[in-house]
Amino acid sequence: MTVTEAKPAPAGYTVVFGETGFNKYVGPVWRAPDGGEYLFDVRDIHMNGGGALHGGMAMALADIVMGRTVRDALGDARALTISLNCDFVGPAKLGDRIRGTAKITRKTRSIVFIAGELTVEGRPILTATGLWKIIGAE
Fold it and tell me: Where are the extended beta strands (E) located within 59-138?
């Protein structure tokens, strides 16, 4: 089985970013209208040599989901990833639809703490925690 072309966006979902640079190979990643859920379909370019989703791709997806969640919470302020810790807890295979969610666990004047999860059909494949530095905050 090969899945080289991206599927169309689910009804009501929007693409998170464009098809340029690194993002051309990552996406598309779709965002729910309320911003609480992200979807991603595993294609052949996302696979490792063992027949599962590449760990680096899973980490990139977690960074996107968590980063967008932080961005939404900050409004006009911007932030950058300073730490992203991931645990691989299950595989994803070609053609799987991955659901990503994240929740801010704490926010200070300069740092946002966040936790995220990637799942396939309710089964976790990756859990993550991270820190985002608010730009310009001391």
Answer: 79-88, 97-107, 111-120, 123-134
The SS3 assignment for 84 reads: strand
For residue 111 the two structure tokens come to 């740092």
CA distance 66 to 32: 14
Amino acid 74 reads L
Segment-wise mean pLDDT, segments of 10 residues, the chain, 138 residues:
72 81 82 93 93 96 95 91 98 96 97 98 98 89
Q: Which two tokens stand for residue 112?
A: 């946002």
SS3 call for 75: coil
Cis peptide before 33 (omega within 30 of 0): no
Q: Which residue has the tokens 């004047």?
A: 109
